[in-house]
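can u pls check wat happens w/ adenosine-5'-diphosphate
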Amino acid sequence: METLERVFGYKSFRHPQQEIIEGLIEGNDAFVLMPTGGGKSLCYQLPALHRKGVGIVVSPLISLMKDQVDALRANGVRAVAYNSALSQSESREVLTAMTSGKLELLYVAPERLMQGAFLQKLDYVDIALFAIDEAHCISHWGHDFRPEYVTLGKLRERFPKVPLIALTATAEPRTRIDIVERLHLSEARSYISSFDRPNIRYTVLQKTNAAEQLAKYVGAGNGLAGIVYCSTRKRVEDVAGMLRRAGISAEAYHAGMPDRDRKNVQEGFLREDVDVIVATVAFGMGIDKPNVRFVVHYDVPKHIEGYYQETGRAGRDGLPSDAILLFSVGDYITAKRLVETGENRDRNAIEIKKLEAMKRFAEGFSCRRKQLLAYFGEEHSGNCGNCDTCLNPRERYDATEDVKTILMCVYETKQRYGARLVVDVLVGADTEKIRSAGFDLLPSHGKGAGQDSAYWDAVINQLLDLGYLRKENEKYPILKLTALTKDVLRGGNTVSLVRPAAPKPKRRRQRLRSIARPADRALFEKLRALRKRIADEEGVPPYIVFGDATLNEIAARKPKDRGALGAISGVGTHKLQKYGERFLNLISQE
Ligand code: ADP
Ligand code: ZN
């Protein structure tokens, strides 16, 4: 606790940091599953400072190591990265520092750590703990398998006395089991946190005039950092150009650009020289920028997994952030066609299912958070109050008669067809298929002609969500009645649904929320400018100096002396000493 305050400047632990940290200090292993931004790093950094010896942290990417090491050093911790980015003499220096016990934390790539010579060196060094970050990289099931990670399985046996902690933000249960097995952590305590990201506001917008919608949302000159994801490189270039013409500081990023340009763009974003990155999904891995305020999906994402991971890059610092999806059925159809051209048919079928789940989410009426978490197997009560469906609930109506009409039609067509045919029968379509099956003679035929197909589609989707209907057969889904059906058909039970949108919605200009800024915005901006100056002098990203949450608090409290400044979350002893003077000066001029 004392270290938390002194080194990191934080006033309290987040759940379940304290338990994990205490366990490690006592020498126990741990498996930690926490969402992005949950505060995983502290779980091993703090015990490493408490225990004798150096904490060894395995990390898959040089950029991630660099970020963490920069942040630790800014807090006065003796941390280094040991990877291929070092020159020979630098490497030697690191090793000397390590063997002479001068290091508190060492970040290392897995292949370096597991080299025979390096392991032998470790035999003569006090090791505080091993931390395996991004531990899902060890599993084939994970989306990011790295063969170098597999050898880490030997660590547990080779260093039986050193506590080991594995951390990941990947919720997939199979990956989870795999990590525990491969790292021999069956005895370790598991700490599984909720995957909810309460500070992210999920919004799905009907995509009408996307360029205009986006430019209006981003707004010129507010300096908020954001990422806009597009499906193709061309789209990336177009949208970046459009935003720049609208006076917004935006840059494109995609795999077709030369490495150097990409690196520059990424650096510019981290250093706050560029506000908005327009990118393909290639952008994001290894980016730890905590103050990304919005993530926009300009095109429909391929799956909910990707969508959730990408939106998760917003608001790592816990401050209010936006995740906005621009959705149109047209985009969905385009994406689906693209998937269908894939060579591997089995693979295509899986991808289409994932895309369909994405569409259901976008067209859903229930709490977005509830839908997303349910997809990952986590229950949420809904009514989160921080998503578009909770904030603007759609009108409900008594749909009992229409529901009966649908259920009867499914019954009369013998529960052997998909939604397409059922809707065709309802609206009284006169097709070859219907005639040859004799469905034009059914009582249901044309019974729903008072509404159009889109209406019936929307109602069927809701019935599937609510369990009045279910789908069978994955490839060619057919509609089946369920146990709930009887209650409706026999009367007595009413069904209340959300009224489907009119087929051609009037061009309703959606007012997008502008992100809350501190009460004293003028001061906040001055503090931000000072932070940027210091960051440039030191060659680090601004968030390494102070996070946005810390600046917000400074702007609100206007501390007059070192004591008051030091009491603010994120201001540790080291930073107080280094930057205190300059920040206090600025505040005193107010
Ligand atoms: P993760 O690795 O889980 O994505 P990080 O360890 O990078 O998350 O932490 C996310 C953010 O939360 C960082 O900005 C970090 O400084 C902040 N943070 C972590 N623990 C605390 C705490 N106890 N109090 C205040 N801020 C914290
Ligand atoms: Zn909600």
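Residues 99 and 517 are 48 Å apart (CA to CA).
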